[in-house]
From TrEMBL:
One GO BP: proteasome-mediated ubiquitin-dependent protein catabolic process
GO cellular component: cytoplasm; GID complex
Pfam families recorded: WD40
Signal sequence segment: none
Ranges of the WD repeats in the UniProt entry: 1-23, 54-85, 239-265, 266-298
Location(s), subcellular: Cytoplasm
Protein name per UniProt: WD repeat-containing protein 26
InterPro entries the UniProt entry points to: WD40/YVTN_repeat-like_dom_sf, WD40_repeat_dom_sf, WD40_rpt, WD_repeat-ST_regulator
């Protein structure tokens, strides 16, 4: 999902990138809207509609990253892809194609907070900091990157590498330090909005929660099947109190951050679920993608969805979206 929650981007092995418009609510009764302009009802629908397809990507898409303002979308390819693409989502125009060397492998990327710089890298040892003109501003030699994350201070970058670590890199000071050491490969990770907790998907181990400040493992979440697939998990909910992850058993798992046992599992996909994304604004929406070539949108069952009027809230039997899917 985009930072404002109103767009959803998906990429696939066929090199297609599709942008969807998100419509969390609709008018329940248009007649009321016309006759009584000061009073109308809105009903949560949690729908998405295909908007545009971004053309020009010549490899399968392995990773997507929205710019902080939601205007640009960055795409990486598989291991044999030496290029990186940046699109203007509003116009569908390719803003930048970064090609530094034909020997590169650029499979991971992340935006800095100001949206003017980004980092990218891959498991062949490339790790670059670049600007929107495509210039490589800085590089770190010999870091084999699986996943990247730019921290909120605007200068620190976290990188999961092939030595089962997450290290912190400061390009301005050319300093680095070890934060996390796992015993198995870290396939992906994400950081919550407080910039303190990291959620890792670890080969054969599942989903681990780490405290970046105290450098300690907080919790191992149970239930998910994690082999050697690249699976992406996420934080969600108003205060990032919930966690979702895909799984190789074709399910989506949901947990509360303080309990290692899942609240529920979401079934419907017929092959491995490789990525989930919780809407950062409309917290009742969760998207999942799978090797079955489908995108699914999850939300509260109809009886738990809220109705609103422009005068006052009309409270229905509402419950936690993470418990009533």
């Amino acid at each position: 999902f985009s930072p404002n929650g109103k767009k959803l981007a998906t990429g696939s092995k066929d090199a297609s990138i599709i942008i969807y418009d998100v419509d969390p609510v609709c008018f329940k009764n248009n007649f009321l809207l016309v006759i009584f302009s000061q009073y109308y009802l809105l009903q949560e629908t949690l729908t998405v509609e295909q908007s545009i397809t971004l053309d020009g990507h010549s490899y399968g898409v392995s990773y997507l990253s929205w710019s902080p303002d939601g205007e640009l979308l960055m795409a990486c390819g598989p291991e044999d892809c030496p290029d990186l693409w940046v699109w203007n989502v509003s116009t569908g125009v390719l803003r930048l194609k970064l090609s530094h060397s034909s020997d590169d492998s650029l499979t991971a990327c992340s935006w800095h907070k100001d949206g003017q710089k980004f980092v990218c890298g891959g498991i062949r040892g490339q790790f670059y900091q670049c600007d929107l003109e495509g210039s490589v501003l800085d590089s770190w030699e010999g870091v084999r990157v699986n996943c990247l994350w730019c921290r909120s201070d605007g200068k620190t970058v976290l990188a999961a590498d092939t030595r089962h670590r997450i290290r912190s890199y400061n390009f301005d000071e050319l300093s680095d330090q070890n934060l996390i050491q796992e015993e198995h490969p870290i396939m992906s990770f994400t950081v919550n909005k407080t910039d303190r907790l990291a959620l890792l998907n670890v080969v054969t181990q599942g989903v681990h929660l780490w405290d970046l400040q105290d450098k300690c493992l907080v919790r191992k979440f149970q239930g998910v099947t994690q082999g050697h697939f690249s699976i992406h998990s996420c934080f969600g909910g108003v205060d990032h109190d919930f966690i979702a992850s895909g799984s190789e058993d074709n399910k989506v798992y949901l947990w509360h951050i303080k309990n290692e046992l899942p609240i529920t599992t979401l079934t419907g996909h017929t092959r491995a679920v490789t990525c989930v994304s919780w809407n950062p604004v409309y917290h009742q929406m969760l998207a999942s993608v799978s090797d079955d070539c489908t995108v699914r949108i999850w939300g509260p069952a109809a009886k738990y969805r809220k109705q609103k009027s422009n005068k006052s809230d009309i409270n229905s039997d509402s419950g936690s979206p993470s418990k009533h899917m």
